[in-house]
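Session log. Operator J.P. requested a structure for one protein chain; no other inputs attached. Running the standard single-chain path with token output.
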Amino acid sequence: MDKRQADINSRIEMAADNTSDTDFEQKQSDSFRIKTETVTESDSQKSDVKTTSKDSVFRDLFGDRKYALQLYQAIHPEDTDVTEADIGNVTIKNIFTDQQYNDLGMTVRGKLLLMLEAQSSWTVNIIIRIFLYLAHTWNEYIESTRQNRYGSKKLAVPRPEFYVIYSGDRKDRPKWLRLSEEFFEGNKEYLEINVKVLYGDGKGDIISQYVDFTKVYNEQVRLYGKTREAVLSTIRICQDRNVLKEYLSGREKEVINIMMGLFDQEKAVEQFGNEKKEEGREEGKLESKKEAAINMKAEGLPESMIAKVLDVGLNIVQEWVAGTAVAR
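Structure written below.
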């Protein structure tokens, strides 16, 4: 490092270290306002996260501070003083896939960071995903609060908690997922991540309602397939059972669009997979014909006859045979 660069780094560090605690606390409280997108659905209802075609019902539901607060209270019932104003939504960019987002981050009073993911199929890989999301979110937090990660002053970051809301068959699923146990044979000497699994066991709280909603949805899909009828039936049944009733009544159109969008996405993925399988079959057939053409040529059959027998163009047969001759 040259003298000039060292001087620049020194000045940056001094500026960061001289930032007053009051200034920094203000930055902390404002930090995720930068990352929160607000759209107005009506004069009386506001959501903190802009809904996109990639969003899931999970993110749409808990992207509203009203329901995010209920989520926090279900996880931390002992904290009775927290209000909607204390909740900040963290925009988690899906850096792994182009599929629908089913993860959520939220801050509480700028000090606590909750990272959650909903899943209906069991996988321990969520531990790795959450860890990568944490690193990404902390990095953005440090930048938004203008802290110097290369300075000597200790960085201030919100304390994280990790959760997965699981709506599949519980069976003998554990209460906790631990990085060391699942990936490193219990070795936690250098790194450990604990993810608490929530099964919706609460009596009528927002988590249990969300889990019930997903189960009703799965039942209706089994009955009606991935159709609009399944979506409408899910909404009607849940409203009758007082499951997410207020949310589904106020956001029915958005929920229908989200769920139909999911169907369209799954259909597109399925069609893409079928196309790839068909391409593979065609490639396999062509490879077999190529091998047959080479064998026929070795037996002395004329190329024109080979083309006719295999139902391919003469130029293709000539290319196959010429390639073999060059290789030899």
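Operator note: Residues 282-327 form one domain.
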